[in-house]
Amino acid sequence: MTKFVKGNEAVVIGALYAGCDLYFGYPITPASEIAHGAAKWFPMLGRTFVQAECETASVNMMFGAAAAGKLCMTATSGPGFSLMQEGLSYLAGAELPAVVVNVNRAGPGLGNVYPEQSDYTPAVKGGGHGNYQTFTLAPASAQEMCDLTIKAFEMAAKWRTPAVVFADGLQGQMMESVALPAAEVPRPDFSAWAAQGEPKTRANLVKSIFLDAHAQEVFNEKLQAKYEAMRADALAESCLADDADILLVAFGIGARIARTTAETLRKQGVKAGCFRPITLNPFPREQLAAAAKGRKILSLEIDAGQFADDVRLNLAKAGLGAEAAAVKMIHRMGGEVVTVDDAVKAAKELL
Amino acid sequence: MATIEQKGMYRSFPRSGKDVSFTHYCPGCGHGIINKLIAEACAELGLQDRTIFVDPVGCGVFTYYYWDAAHISAAHGRASAVATGTCRARPDAVTMAYQGDGDLGAIGFNNAFQAASRGERFGCIFVNNSLYGMTGGQMAPTTLDGETTTTTPFGRDPALTGHPLHVCEVFNQLAAPVYIARVSVADTRRILQAKQAIRKMFEIERDGKGYALLEILAPCPTNFRMTAEKAAQFCITEMEKEYPLAVFRDVTKDATPLVPRDVPRAADCAALFAEKTVVPPAADDPAIAEKRFKFAGYGGQGVLSLGLTVAEAARLERRHTLWFPSYGPEQRGGSANCSVVVSGTPIGSPTVEHPDVLVCMNQPSYERFVGDVVKGGTVIVDETVPLTVAPPEGVTVVRWPAIRLAEEFGVPKAANTMMLAALKKLACTGLSGASLEAALVASFKKKPELGEKNRELLRKAEAREG
Amino acid sequence: MVQIDKENCKACGRCVAACPKKCLALGDEFNAMGIRAVKYTGAGCVSCGLCFYNCPEPYAIKVVKE
Prior knowledge:
heterotrimer, A: alpha/beta, Rossmann fold, seven-stranded mixed β-sheet, 14 helices, 15 strands, 20% strand, globular, B: alpha/beta, Pyruvate-ferredoxin Oxidoreductase, domain 3, six-stranded mixed β-sheet, 35% helix, 18% strand
């Protein structure tokens, strides 16, 4: 059974199937329909919707609900995502599962409501204080806005970490058919560590403070080990890449443009393929290296090059220094989107 | 052989890193007295299993060393937001936030104030010692006029810092709180009064009566630079001049907690998202090439819903399809347009740079998009639009009386349905007339009679010659 | 009867000031932290417990009523 819905609405459908019990959020364009959908559908299922007074409140309300052992989420866009960075650091520091959906819009500052991918660095590297990361997924369709939201809750619970669904304004507003998930995910049991107000959790303490420096370092090492282990859950997808001379690397809406670009190039006799990270953190380094080895790489993105730098970093870390140094980029900013025509031209210049 | 001794606290405090049984509080600290009263009330009311403390950042940060109940340590200033999440997640728990006058009075004021305004089901015990203790005696919003602190070395000067903040009085303007009071722990009589008020805070949350705020004046000998006894006197003689002890509000006796109004309910997700007409997923058919549409006009001319109808028709024929609007400020009554892509295979780029079919309801959209139409493409323009720009080579332009027909048929808002008739008549969508008609009627699922009316208008317009 | 655990006393004097019978005073013994803990003078305690409630420490004072 499919529904024709906006990407924003698909996020709420996914969250409800994933067992999310509470939504805390502050309205912001272009994520509005997530709040509208949640305001209607959460109460209809007997779950909780709270409109917060600001994004700092939203992320800390999530801290309180997650610390009490419930799955919860918020959705926002760049300006709100900035206000949530402190809260994300605390969620990571207290090892709490929670999902933040960021519908990236053009910045910096007020910017406008059109799509960008410019929140890449805080979303992938952690924009708050301390050595922490979030598990970050990048949908490229309304179906993935649903499925990767479910995945985000799964990863948040599995790794006891905040997870970010990194979308953009275009995907939020775009309507596509979404096949409904087969079943709802059963609620996880967090009573081993959560403060749930019942006898068996009376001794539980959720905190991120370690007064003793040694204890704080031991905890940091534990976090870093978790992030290393998380790399096993990296996800990526490539198409037309097996015999490609040039590889277009892109994620989210950029990956949709890259695929049409590759198909257009193929029709013009140019062997082009695509590589798409589905998780931005953990970055699919091994998969990228396998697809990129010996090929010319063009990153296609809607920011100032933050993603391209991460492609170079991961290629270098995978021992492909030459490929890393030769990575070229085509990008747009401000809410303008890379056109297939320009991408085709840029790809040909590499050959 | 009764004894008077501490209840509700761990017997020793290993979480402090040293297995001692004295606290981290300075000699004579008001927090210490308050901590004991809180633990005692929680234990005496038998609430330790149900209680979730939300601890602040400030001198109260280490309360999780002491109180034998569950704890959540919040970021500085965020305890009231955290407590909101906790009490919403666990409505049967007794959620008790503990905050200082920097934590609540300054950085966390809006979170606390808004939580109180929402009537969140948690208690907020707010310790006012007129300055920042933990971070070294800085001014807080509650610092007294003329009071010396490490950030008011010459005494607080209202000309530069404003006046002391009366939190209870400000919160008393809100409709939702059921109990607001200010007490002190400066001497025996006041401590015993505070003991009753703290017990009441737990009773209120035990019974789910609503939001309660208790402000407690507390001495801070270290930062007052006084002995414990003089600091306690300062609380009485100086602080109480600014912060009179009082019960500002107590409606707990007859406060019946608000119950949310009923809303339509669904048993589960499948029931919630089920649709009457089941549309199967798209079926790949590489033989069907991708076709790109652009619908443009003024906001309110129905161009967005026209695009949606074409997308729905494509779904009925199990094609891959997407729709997206130019969203943003220009949407409000300004120019509006939407893009639709229909294909036999999964769609790549959603942006329609070169439409196969362009529908324009006004001149600005015609001028803006006609140059992008692909060779062999079709442009349908309302007849009121002057063709100020020549179309590219190989592009056919059809002028169609959409607006006039809609008025003639007596339904001016149906101009977009008239355009749908043109699309059907010209057979340029690659979709069957039946699918387009079915999609049109389905788009009025909330008002079926309007759907039938539009079906009739569609057929009338299509039957027209010319 | 008041019982002082001198290891948990920080000699702030709140109990001394609060005792209606004035039967508490700073002692002369130092505890492990180097603080001269409060001491019961040995007479006059009526087990009213006000010292306990004035004391910021949970385990410095206990009052046992005969």
